[in-house]
Amino acid sequence: MLAGCTAEAAGEDPTAGPSATGGSGPTARFTFATAARPVTLDPALASDTESFRVSRQVLEGLVGVDALTSAPVPLLATGWTQSEDRKTYTFELRRDVMFHDGEPFNAEAVRRNFERWYHLPESVRSGGSLMYKSVFRGYSDTPATAVYKSCEVEDEYTVRVELNTPMESFIAALAAPPFAISSPKALAEAGADSLTRELNGRRVSGYGVHPVGTGPFRFVAWNEDTVELAANPGYWGEKGQIGSVVFRTISSPEGRLRALKKGEVDGYDLVTVNDVGDLARNGQRIQQRDPYSVLYLGINQNFPGLDSVLMRQAVAHAIDKPAVLDGLFLNGTKPANQFMPEKLGLTSDSVTGYGYDPEKARELLEEAGYDGRELPFYYPRRVTRSYLPAPEKVYARLSAQLTAAGFNIRPVPVDWSEGYLEKVQGKEDRAFHLLGLAGSYEGGDNFLGTLFGRYTEEFSFNDPEVFTGIEKAARLPEGQDQTDAYHAVSDRISQRVPAVPLAFPISALALSPRVSSYPTSPVLHEVFNRVSLTDR
After folding, report:
1. Helix/strand/coil (H, E, C) string of 304-328?
2. Which of 115, 221, 247, 507 could be stapled to 6 by a disulfide with Cβ–Cβ 3.0 to 4.6 Å?
3. Cα 365 vs. chain centroid, distance in angstroms?
4. Quick check: 149 and 162 in contact, CB under 8 A?
5. In terms of domains, do 517 and 498 share one?
6. Domain count, the chain
7. Where are the annotated segments for Disordered (predicted)?
8. What's the rounded Cα separation, in Å, for the pair 482 and 479?
9. Do 238 and 367 share a structural domain?
10. Contacts of 491 (CB under 8 A, 6+ apart)
11. What is the CATH number of the domain that holds 266?
């Protein structure tokens, strides 16, 4: 078992640590508390917020995120052009950029990353939950469904990407962490596509414990509950004040609050309602993000009885959403009746509504022939998510409401760190589960495509009309036709109830007085070279 991985242990020059930043570079230390450990530091194989939080510091993509609007902007690409048929994109690349291992960033590096994603072996695809699958639809072993066609080098700093079909969100999606560019040399030397190691009870590759990118920080060490980074002395962009970064995992909200008050950390994410008063009294700052996530109650149609739409509609009628949210979510959180946040401007006014009506739920259960079978309800413990600040309490309220409407609920608590994501997105014998989706880029496909664009084990939902509708909307250029297409899909999803949308939550960070500026982002594109401190 691999208990931890340091730069030296992974084969990196040990001088890559904080002292390597040099006397003239950034020197401040910034410690940030996280709610869970990363799963892997290889963003291409990750699907969790905490893995991406770290990888964003180390790796960069061709496309970045505008700090004010969240729109896509140039990053490692200085610009791009699109062909008339919207299937070919030519990227001009930034020059004089080096990976942390000294290898040059160029068109060949970009090509090798695209080809790696396309040819990922089935053994590392995490049961289909990777963002590559939701964005590009297929891999090299399923070319008939694949959006990606090829990536060709035109010259050292020009690369051409060809798609099999148009995809409106292609550029925006490239700003998401899974499409960050890794050093091809590091990928090859570390065996990035072979999960040969174990860390914190999970299978990872050698690259997954030692990423190499072009970002403002480089990897130093990962030891169970801490990840250490150091400033990249050769960074092409703004270096900022931070010379070293420590991510420290503290799973309980109370523990994170305590660490901030004692000065052990400079900030933490996922502020809860219970934290707010204490933070204000102690002079700590709270920064909220615009809502860009959705909390939902997942329904597994492979569980006996739940293949009946009547029974799923009964679930929707049994839930009093405002009562579930009351006092557990930050002010500004709104109940959800569909899966796309208002920020996208794609909200449909004609979705099927399921008002709180336990009597109607009981009638539907009887009509569906529900026999009182026990229904396992999975929910996470010992974690806080941006869309789920108090998992046990949310579960308790939902369970009580479902029970009152006639459902026989069996609680199945699972520690987040013990593979909760894998259990609720795999073939476990479950009826219901609590989960959510935090948006990674601007576009309706980020939500509907990710959740319902194809058959997944999470919902066991198979509706060709929905799948085709999402595909149509994703291919249309931005405008009224695309909006109408997304409205039609949202309406159909609301009728079929593969899951019940519960809330569009507000999330917030807590920062010590030492932090004068922090780059909050609805899509969590928060890179610490843009953090400003009152001291150095």
Report:
1. CCCCCHHHHHHHHHHCCHHHHHCCC
2. 221
3. 35
4. yes
5. no
6. 3
7. 1-27
8. 5
9. no
10. 348, 350, 351, 352
11. 3.40.190.10
CB 368 within 8 A of CB 318: no
Pair (337, 478) in one structural domain: yes
Tell me which residue has tokens 């959705």. Answer: 294
- Reported as a single tens digit per residue, the pLDDT across 439-490 is 999 999 999 999 999 999 999 999 999 999 999 999 999 999 999 999 999 9
Q: How many residues does the chain have?
A: 536
Could you tell me if 386 and 269 are in contact, meaning their C-beta atoms sit under 8 angstroms apart? yes
The residue with tokens 């989960």 is 435
Are 55 and 67 found together in one domain? yes
What is the Cα–Cα distance from 249 to 255, expressed in whole angstroms?
10
Q: What is the pTM of this model?
A: 0.92
Look at residues 357, 292, 356 and name the one whose alpha carbon lies nearest to residue 505: 292
Same domain, 214 and 259: no
Please, are residues 274 and 255 in contact by the beta-carbon 8 Å criterion?
Answer: no
One domain, residues 78 and 59 = yes
Q: Is 153 left (phi over 0), alpha (psi -120 to 50) or beta?
A: beta
Cα distance between residue 330 and residue 96, in whole Å: 45
Confirm if 87 and 99 have CB atoms less than 8 A apart.
no
Determine the 3-state secondary structure of 437 from DSSP: strand
- Closest by CA to 126, choosing from 417, 425, 416, is 425
From CA 297, how far away is CA 316, in angstroms rounded? 9
Residue 9 gets the label, from left (phi > 0), alpha (psi -120 to 50) or beta, of: alpha
Q: Hey, CA dihedral for 439, 444, 447, 450, is it positive or negative? A: negative
Q: Which two tokens stand for residue 347?
A: 């909200």
| Structural domain boundaries enclosing 259 | 250-289+507-523+528-532
| Alpha-carbon separation of residue 111 from 96, 116, 140, 378 (angstroms) | 18, 9, 15, 41
Residue 403's domain is classified under what CATH number? 3.10.105.10
> Token digits for 11?
């084969």
Q: Which long-range contacts (CB under 8 A, 24 or more apart) does 12-17 make?
A: 12/101, 12/210, 12/219, 16/100, 16/218, 16/219, 16/220, 16/230, 17/220, 17/228, 17/230
- Could you read off the pLDDT of 290-341 as tens digits, one per residue? 999 999 999 999 999 999 999 999 999 999 999 999 999 999 999 999 999 9
> What tokens were used for 413?
């608590």
Helix (H) or strand (E) holding 402: helix 391-404
Q: Are residues 333 and 378 in the same domain?
A: yes
